[in-house]
Design goal:
By secondary structure, the chain is α+β, with helices and mostly antiparallel strands. 22% of the residues lie in helices and 27% in strands. Strands 4-3-10-11 form a four-stranded antiparallel beta sheet, with no helix packed on it. The chain has a three-stranded antiparallel beta sheet with strand order 1-2-5, with no helix packed on it. This is Cell wall protein.
């Protein structure tokens, strides 16, 4: 009889412990948490820009100039150059002008318009699209005449930016062209152009002939 009760007690104990064991087998311990790490998303570098840079045509004492102001904004040092160029084109012809080297991202100054020139005193003695030939100024297709027409321009470093550049228009105060080109060539000894001189000579001869005829008609007849 005692054996029966012992066997029953053992069976009951096994029944009570079985769910615990099964639960332990079904629910394993979670793995130890891994060390926490801070997530990192790299920032895209800011592109360099020439925003705010300008180049404009100006006239001073009949001389055409290009005044420029260049500012390079490059917070992440992406630009690979510090040399500044001004590029002018009409779609067919192109000229590239070296303006200088940036200093701390800045450059400003002015250069003569292509085809323009001045003498040692800074007085204009050449203009784009004009030539002094046979004692007078005449318009020509060469000497960068195309730069006075419909052009586009941009400033280039490593980025580039378009600028509103145009040949300076003539005003009463300043004319970036020869003044009175049809009579610009003068003979220093007479003060008369080569075109006017022959006309004056012919006129003088006609006047002399008229006076001679007048004198002959006035001469008393014998």
């Amino acid at each position: 009889m005692r054996k029966f009760f012992v066997a029953a007690a053992v069976s009951a104990s096994l029944l009570l412990l079985a769910p615990v064991g099964a639960s332990a087998a079904m629910d394993p311990e979670p793995p130890a948490p891994s060390p926490t790490s801070t997530s990192y998303t790299p920032d895209n570098p800011d592109e360099p820009t020439l925003a705010g840079s300008t180049a404009v045509g100006e006239c001073e004492r009949d001389v055409p100039w290009i005044s420029y102001s260049v500012t390079l904004t490059d917070p992440d040092n992406q630009s690979t150059s510090d040399e500044v160029y001004l590029v002018i084109t009409d779609g067919v012809n192109t000229i590239e002008i070296f303006l200088g080297t940036l200093v701390n991202g800045e450059l400003s100054g002015r250069v003569l318009w292509p085809g323009a020139s001045v003498d040692e005193n800074g007085i204009a003695d050449g203009w784009p699209g004009w030539a002094f030939e046979n004692g007078e100024w005449i318009e020509i297709d060469g000497n960068f005449a195309w730069t006075r027409g419909d052009i586009t321009a941009f400033i280039r470093v490593n980025p580039e930016v378009a600028v509103a550049l145009a040949y300076p228009p003539a005003t009463p105060e300043c004319n970036a062209n020869p003044r009175n080109p049809s009579t610009a060539g003068f003979l220093s000894s007479t003060g008369m152009s080569q075109l006017v001189l022959p006309t004056a000579i012919i006129g003088g001869l006609v006047l002399a002939a008229g006076l001679s005829l007048f004198v002959l008609r006035r001469r008393p007849r014998n």
